[in-house]
From TrEMBL:
InterPro entries: Rhodanese-like_dom (IPR001763), Rhodanese-like_dom_sf (IPR036873), TrhO (IPR020936), TRHO_N (IPR040503). Residues 126-220 form the Rhodanese domain. GO terms for molecular function: oxidoreductase activity, acting on paired donors, with incorporation or reduction of molecular oxygen; transferase activity. HAMAP family: TrhO (MF_00469). The gene is trhO. This is tRNA uridine(34) hydroxylase. Keywords: Oxidoreductase, Transferase, tRNA processing. The lineage of its organism: Bacteria, Pseudomonadati, Pseudomonadota, Alphaproteobacteria, Hyphomicrobiales. It catalyses: uridine(34) in tRNA + AH2 + O2 = 5-hydroxyuridine(34) in tRNA + A + H2O. Belongs to the TrhO family. It comes from the Bacteria. Its EC number is 1.14.-.-. The keyword Transferase applies. Catalyzes oxygen-dependent 5-hydroxyuridine (ho5U) modification at position 34 in tRNAs.
């Protein structure tokens, strides 16, 4: 059996996010969906898996059902498949942030960088003076990244602020392009950098996953696999599962 996997997020005001937890959890259990969804005052984030029909039914409910009352009409979604169920159970967690940067002044609902589609990404990377940033954690970067990308060498995303403060200069680094797994970390990172005075900040819309889905391998600037936070470990071009590092070392 093949399972459909949905990675999703949206920054949107959810003042009632605490009240949404239990009914959302029940809905997923009724659909026999597993995975993790995070709810916070600023929106929703997570990855879930189930049958094609179950995931489709969940997306219909999230986007237009009574639970969220049409507030999730702009979900950022990426779909992939898994030969086995990649999650052990269903969790809906309440958080202060749906992705933790730890800077109260950073607000993607107010301002973010310029979105760049996967089709336009390679052209942006060829522009002179561009600084290409991988905003992910060090173990993710080790598995794969774009050619020429700067590795901030951070253990957790909340350390990104220190990297920007210590290694980047708005007066020198005029044009910055950044990317992450699904796009959500770049929403926070680009908002933060704009607030720090960086003039032009671009980010890959839909993240690496969307790039691997849309861009033919022959035209790709991506090297390696893209780490995903489930039992599949990594995905490659076409969002095809890749063997984990342990399996590769045993060959």
């Amino acid at each position: 059996m093949t399972y459909k996997v949905a990675a999703l997020y949206q920054f949107v005001p959810l003042p009632d996010f605490r009240e949404l937890r239990d009914p959302l959890h029940r809905l997923c259990l009724d659909l026999e969906i597993r995975g993790t969804l995070l709810l916070a005052h600023e929106g929703i984030n997570g990855t879930v898996a189930g049958t094609d029909k179950a995931i489709d039914d969940l997306m219909v409910e999230l986007r237009g059902g009574a639970l969220f009352k049409g507030r999730l009409d702009n979900l950022e979604l990426k779909f992939s498949t898994s030969a086995e169920m990649p999650f052990r159970r269903m969790k809906v967690r309440l958080k202060k942030e749906i992705v933790t940067l730890g800077d109260p002044q950073t607000d993607p609902l107010r301002r973010v960088g310029t979105y760049v589609t996967p089709a336009e990404w390679n052209r942006l990377l060829d522009e002179p003076g561009i600084v290409l940033l991988d905003t992910r954690n060090d173990f993710e970067v080790e598995m794969g990244t774009f050619e020429g990308a700067v590795d901030p060498r951070i253990k957790r995303f909340s350390e990104f602020k220190d990297f920007v403060k210590n290694k980047l200069d708005p007066g020198q680094h005029k044009k910055v392009a950044m990317f992450c797994t699904g796009g959500i970390r770049c929403e926070k990172a680009s908002s933060y950098m704009l607030a720090q005075g960086f003039e032009e900040v671009f980010h890959l819309k839909g993240g690496i996953l969307k790039y691997l889905e849309d861009v033919p391998e022959a035209e790709s600037r991506w090297n390696g696999g893209c780490f995903v936070f489930d039992e599949r470990i990594a995905l490659g071009h076409g969002l095809v599962e890749q063997p984990d590092r342990g399996e590769q070392s045993d060959e």
